[in-house]
Amino acid sequence: MEESGKLILIAVAAFGLAIFIYAAYISDPPLIKLPNIQEKLKTEVEKSQKVDPKLLSTLSVDPKKRVRMFVSLEGINATELEKQGLKIIKKGKYANYAVVEGDYTTLNKLISTQGVSKVYKDGAVKAVEVDLSQLEKIPIKPVVQDVDWNLEAIKADVVHQSNITGRNAVIVIIDTGVNHNLPDLNDHYLTGYDFVHNDNEPDDVYGHGTKCASIAVGEGETYKGVAPSASYIALKALNDEGWGNWSDIIAALEWCLDYINSGHRIDIISMSLGADLAPPELQQVCDELYAKGVILVAASGNDGGDVSLYPARYDSVISVAANDILLNVASFSNGEAYVSAPGVQVPVLAPDGNIYFGDGTSFATPHVAGVLALVESEKDITPQQAFELLKISTDEINDPNNKVEYGQIDAVKAVNNALDLDLKGGEHWYDIIKEPQIQIVVGLLLLAGIIKFYILKGGGGLIED
Ligand SMILES: [Ca+2]
Ligand SMILES: [Ca+2]
Ligand SMILES: [Ca+2]
Ligand SMILES: [Ca+2]
């Protein structure tokens, strides 16, 4: 018994030592080999020029990491990739692409496959909002602060008075989903889809999509949007952390093509999302929707760069910049924008039913979608006509760095120009001093005061008269 006890002890000790050695030397990633793989990445993959730098940098940190890869195809289809042993998790319907999940070895196989034109990192799209920490977290009371300033700025309130409120127009919101059960978003919700989880409920956990939708179509029970009677569709293509896959954005746009092709109406697609590199298939579906008569609007971006993000950057998409209440273009707003809209401290409705103030070209974008819905509710226009209409339907903004081609959208001008109406929009209170007549009158009054005070020595100025 004693001998066998010793043996067991030795066996246990040996086993323990083996585990220790395994834990110390074997189970840990062999870090020393990583530079070799990185070297290989540089020489083979970079040379091929087929790989998105974002994907490369993700895989050079950990070549074993499994990443969703967006594969642009030319001359072959997704089924042929499958025949080569690659597992396809998604493929295009209108555009020719496949989504493959895999590691560096998979990538290597992909780039040596004929017909693969480029491989992108799929999960690279972000909701175009300013850091959430900048969002005012405390709900505000509508009576205390003006929750309508943005509607007044673009004169949507004046258009509403003429009973033009977006009736029958259809806006698609591609975002993080929308809480369409809120009293301000429940009456004109048509349908939706969740491309992240593949179900029919585009539930909004992150909150960004609900905020964007409320600006465009909020019904006005507690929060009013630009086109409170417009109908909307919520397509969830960004996940519960506010980012998404290009394949889900493209799938959402392909869903729109299907919807139109089956005889349904879509007037405008609003996309408060983007990135600085996108697969060409994104442009292909945007261009196809444009050709089908759909107006596309997208956020220019919030990194203050010279150019707009994709998809806003495409010719088929209206890029929207953000401005504040005093018509200054926001410093974070990206350049090459077509028009501008309120996007600094804008009141937004969150999924919890409270109103917050938010910043970002994300929140500017649905203002433009809303104004175009006001027009589309009265008259069907083409995307080409929308570009032309906006050109002559803006107010001047302060844009020292030339980020915006035209100015802040003006709903009264848009409706008047499109429908040949003569709605009176009025001016901003601070616009009045820009008028030459007013400047002359103010100047004459001042002069009169000075003359009376100094030359006539009336002693008391104007009041004693
Ligand atoms: Ca309602
Ligand atoms: Ca869902
Ligand atoms: Ca554009
Ligand atoms: Ca139209």
Q: Estimate nothing, just give the exact number of structural domains.
A: 3
CATH class term of the largest domain: Alpha Beta
- Taking pLDDT < 50 over at least 5 consecutive residues as the criterion, the unreliable ranges are 21-33, 132-144, 458-465
Please indicate the percent range of residues in DSSP E strands (runs of 2 or more): 15-25%
Separation of the first and last Cα atoms: 123 Å
Please tell me how large the radius of gyration is.
Answer: 29 Å
The strand order across the widest sheet is 7-8-6-10-12-13-14
CATH topology of the largest domain: Rossmann fold
Structural class: alpha/beta
Bound molecules: calcium ion
Largest sheet: 7 strands, parallel
Number of strands: 18
Shape designation: elongated
What is the helix tally? 14
CATH architecture descriptor name of the largest domain = 3-Layer(aba) Sandwich
Task: Characterise the protein shown here.
There is one protein chain. With 465 residues, the chain is α/β, with parallel strands linked by helices. The chain has three domains: 31-122, Peptidase S8 propeptide/proteinase inhibitor I9 (Alpha-Beta Plaits, 2-Layer Sandwich), CATH 3.30.70.80; 126-419, Peptidase S8/S53 domain (Rossmann fold, 3-Layer(aba) Sandwich), CATH 3.40.50.200; 435-465. It is built from 14 helices and 18 strands. The strands form five sheets. The protein has a seven-stranded parallel sheet, with helices on both faces. Strands 2-3-1-4 form a four-stranded antiparallel sheet. Mean pLDDT is 87; it is low at 21-33, 132-144 and 458-465. One calcium ion (CA) binds at residues 267, 293, 376, 380-381.
